[in-house]
Amino acid sequence: MQRNVKNIAIILAGGVGARAELGSPKQFAILDGRPILQHNIINFTAHPYIDHIILVCADINDEKLEQIIGGHKIDDIVQGGETRRKSAFEGLKAAKKLSEDIGFNIGHIFIHDAARPHIPAKVIDNLVAALKNHVAAIPILPVADTILQTHDDVYDKIIDRNALRIVQTPQAFDFDIIYNAHENWDQDFEPSDDAQMVHKLGLNVAIVDGDIRLKKYTYKDDFMMDGALKMPNIRIGGGYDVHRLISGDGVYLCGVKIDCDKALLGHSDADVALHAATDAILGAIAAGDIGDHFPPSDAKWAGASSDQFLAHAVKLCEEKGYYLSNMDITIICEYPKIGPYKLKMRQRIAEICKVEPEQISVKATTTEKLGFTGRGEGIAAMANVIMMKKEMAI
Ligand SMILES: Nc1ccn([C@@H]2O[C@H](COP(=O)(O)OP(=O)(O)OP(=O)(O)O)[C@@H](O)[C@H]2O)c(=O)n1
Ligand SMILES: C[C@](O)(CO)[C@H](O)COP(=O)(O)O
Q1: For the chain, how many structural domains are there in total?
Q2: How high is the ipTM of this complex?
Q3: Domain housing 313
């Protein structure tokens, strides 16, 4: 009985991205909110012609790789080789093994640079159509610019661009043909793509329309232009809290004790401003609210200093890769007067959050004797924060 036929995409992510100078392989950098490599996986997964995906990957620890793949399905992951050609062959060997393990025949293989994150479905359609009559097909684009040949960086001559084409990936092949080309490669030059290996065997390579969106991210400027390195991931959080004022010997606000004949009533030290700040930070990373982390029902937090609540929220953010960009607190009360303490408050919050006082704003306002704050029955506080994630590269 004829075994069923499956088509496989091999994503080449085994390079170091030296020309991109990002400090780590460019395929792990974030573009449009997700790692470049993950875009590839999503695009191939979405195309009905692709049955399996094999990832050929650069050295990276399992935890980071898992994060980069983001829960998407990959059928096998293998280590890249020293060159693109060697990485491609590793992918082909993994494809062969997968077909033997599961029990299917490989129809077509699509070998793709991970450094080309956007793969329009139309290009895959074009390749599939060409493979009906060819053993290999590649996407190409016309050359738009004047092409100059130089010698030792000196102007030499213009090349006729009409005969030239830009070669892209994915490049598509009959499995047996490309496997054979790789297995028997004995030339003394390193091919920059797979199609030229097939062509070297004297076989015809079909050319189909490529797409500008298939652009390869190669140099740092490619990333800069597309905003990959410019736009950090930003999260905004807001917090609001109220505590009742009673007779006492001082109120805690922003981690600073203001000696007076009042106190704020609460399970902890009732620092209403730090509670609002904590909620703002938790809100920015969608990590619930202060009550979820420090339940008033838990005796452990009775009389607790609210500093630790804020420090905990900051730590949670750090664990997710976010840092505090700025915080703006507004304290709403008639009494006590906040003005003389503002600087100290900013310094204390900065200390807890491990940032500079310039990043912290503390403001105060009254409600013109209106409402519960106006009548001196309680103090309200609002906080807004911006948390940022540096997402150049994972
Ligand atoms: N040993 C290698 C070299 C390259 N590639 C992959 O082949 C694609 C195209 O290569 P290129 O743009 O040259 O990437 P790098 O080799 O990473 O870049 P550079 O030459 O700047 O180091 C990339 O997706 C890259 O990860 C690979 O899988 N294994
Ligand atoms: C395969 C390729 O993407 C075709 O344009 C390209 O040759 C690979 O990149 P490299 O810079 O040549 O390694």
Answers
A1: 2
A2: 0.96
A3: 233-389
